[in-house]
Specification:
Blueprint: E1 2-6, H1 11-25, E2 34-42, H2 52-74, E3 81-89, H3 92-102, E4 107-111, H4 125-130, E5 138-141, E6 153-158, H5 164-178, E7 182-186, H6 188-196, H7 201-220, E8 226-230, H8 236-241, E9 249-254, H9 268-276, E10 281-284
Parallel strand pairs: 1-2, 1-4, 2-3, 4-5, 6-7, 6-9, 7-8, 9-10
Antiparallel strand pairs: 5-10
Helix pairs in contact: 6-7
């Protein structure tokens, strides 16, 4: 497996590395993961610039970045495989997507915008672009993230719309690969309240929760413990706040139904969740995993 980690010379870079380390170390065999620490410099590589002044400036940026990227590498334990890469591109987001393709990555890990409130998300322009176009899952570390050594739980937020099977299978495999419990959170109450009103809402949410729990238990095949809860509230943020959260967990959510096949598109529900969550979030592309695919565990 390969994780591409977006590195910047601020707390966002450290938070992204911290989340990638937690994800990797929580696996039964962390040696199966390669960490590609990537920093993007806007513009052409020095050898491709048009003038000497441009070449000098780009070379200065490269040399400066190489210095602190070496310090980023020092954050990675020697037991894990990691390399640093400095790439040039027209935009940060475009450069990250090019790196994902070049390294055939299974996951891209980034930090929240640096001005976000502590333990919450503020999505900057680069993260926003990736969350609307990445062909692989995107893991986002909240501002101020200081991780434990290992994950203790994975929560999967599920709705009723098409594409939920992909995020459910991803969550099942990710939890089983790390031997941690899987909690399913049903957001069907929010979906139905928007689409059908509130009649029989409680019965509908409980029925949906029971169904997805049965599906997950069957899929896990006794590899981990699965529980389910229904999050209800006047808003998505209020529903999220009714749940208990461990600092040692993360949340998986699927893309909007507007997403192209095997691409991410952050819908309104995911964006609202993002503002309320106190833990890392992974967004899975729509229809990312075919049934029985070995790529299901690549998180």
């Amino acid at each position: 497996m390969k994780y591409v980690i977006g590195c910047t010379a601020d707390e966002r870079g450290r938070e992204a590395i911290s989340l990638a380390l937690t994800l990797a170390r929580s696996l039964a065999d962390p040696s199966t993961v390669s960490l590609e620490l990537v920093h993007i410099i806007r513009g052409e590589a020095p050898e491709n610039t048009a003038t000497q002044s441009e070449k000098t400036f780009q070379q200065f940026q490269y040399d400066t970045a190489m210095g602190w990227m070496q310090r980023c590498l020092d954050l990675v334990p020697s037991a894990l495989d990691a390399q640093i890469h400095i790439r040039f591109a027209d935009s940060m987001a475009g450069g990250m997507l090019e790196a994902v393709a070049a390294f055939n990555a299974d996951l891209v890990v980034i930090g929240a915008a640096s001005h976000g409130p502590l333990r919450r998300f503020t999505v900057g322009s680069v993260a926003n672009a990736l969350l609307h176009s990445s062909p692989v899952p995107v893991a986002l570390a909240p501002s101020g993230y200081r991780p434990p050594r290992l994950l203790t739980r994975i929560t999967c937020a599920l709705g009723t719309r098409s594409g939920s099977e992909a995020v459910l299978q991803s969550a099942v495999e990710a939890a089983a690969a790390r031997h941690v419990p899987l909690r399913l959170v049903s957001l069907v109450a929010l979906d139905l309240s928007q689409a059908q009103g509130i009649s029989n809402l409680g019965q509908r949410t409980q029925a949906h929760s029971s169904r997805v729990l049965d599906e997950a238990v069957s899929a896990v095949a006794h590899r981990t413990v699965v529980t389910a809860e229904v999050a209800q509230g006047r808003s998505i943020e209020a529903a999220i706040n009714t749940l208990d959260w461990d600092e040692e967990e993360l949340v998986l959510i699927g893309s909007s139904r507007l997403a192209e096949r095997s691409k991410i598109f952050m819908g309104a529900t995911a964006n609202k969740m993002l503002r309320a969550l106190p833990v890392p979030m992974v967004v899975v592309p729509r229809y990312h995993i075919a049934a029985g695919s070995e790529s299901a565990a690549r998180l």
